[in-house]
């Protein structure tokens, strides 16, 4: 009888999913994207998990925008300001600064 109970516990442990040690269930991570001198987003491309947040921080001396290519968000940030957005669905999300035409970025949500 003891052998059956031990086997049952072992079998249960094999089939029940557990939370990842890197990111427990119910938690989200915040990823920073800096707007820097030279009109660039740093990093220019990031990969995040569904439910995570991206926080844009304007570390430049001039105004920038973070504007979704798909009209999902559009925020203007003065020097030192920040903006956050949670990404709840998977996909590729391109964005740009509408003030500086070559300033672009991509968020990949898995």
How would you describe what is shown here?
This protein is mostly beta strands and 110 residues long. It is 13% helix and 42% strand. The protein has one helix at residues 2-15; strands at residues 30-36, 40-42, 45-48, 53-58, 64-68, 74-77, 82-86, 91-96, 104-109. A 5-stranded mixed sheet has the order 3-9-8-5-6, with no helix packed on it. A 4-stranded mixed sheet has the order 2-1-4-7, with no helix packed on it. A hairpin with a 7-residue loop joins strand 8 and strand 9. It is elongated, with a radius of gyration of 21 Å.
Structural descriptors:
110 residues, five-stranded mixed β-sheet, 42% strand, four-stranded mixed β-sheet, mainly beta
Radius of gyration (CA) equals 21 Å
Taking all residues together, what is the mean pLDDT? Answer: 85
Number of helices: 1
Q: Give a quick account of the main beta sheet: strands, pairing sense, barrel closure.
A: 5 strands, mixed
Number of strands: 9
Poorly predicted segments: 9-21
Task: Itemize the secondary structure elements and their pairings.
Blueprint: H1 2-15, E1 30-36, E2 40-42, E3 45-48, E4 53-58, E5 64-68, E6 74-77, E7 82-86, E8 91-96, E9 104-109
Parallel strand pairs: 1-4, 3-9
Antiparallel strand pairs: 1-2, 4-7, 5-6, 5-8, 8-9
Describe the structure concisely for a colleague.
By secondary structure, the protein is mainly beta. It is 13% helix and 42% strand.
């Amino acid at each position: 009888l003891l052998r059956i109970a031990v086997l049952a516990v072992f079998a249960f442990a094999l089939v029940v999913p557990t939370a990842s040690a890197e990111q427990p269930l119910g938690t989200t991570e915040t990823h920073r994207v800096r707007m820097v001198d030279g009109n660039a987003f740093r990093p220019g491309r990031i990969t995040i998990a569904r439910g995570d947040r991206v926080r844009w921080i304007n570390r430049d001396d001039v105004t920038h925008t973070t504007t979704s290519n798909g009209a999902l968000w559009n925020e203007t940030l003065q020097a030192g300001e920040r903006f956050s957005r949670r990404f709840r669905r998977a996909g590729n999300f391109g964005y740009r600064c509408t003030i500086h035409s070559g300033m672009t970025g991509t968020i990949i949500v898995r």
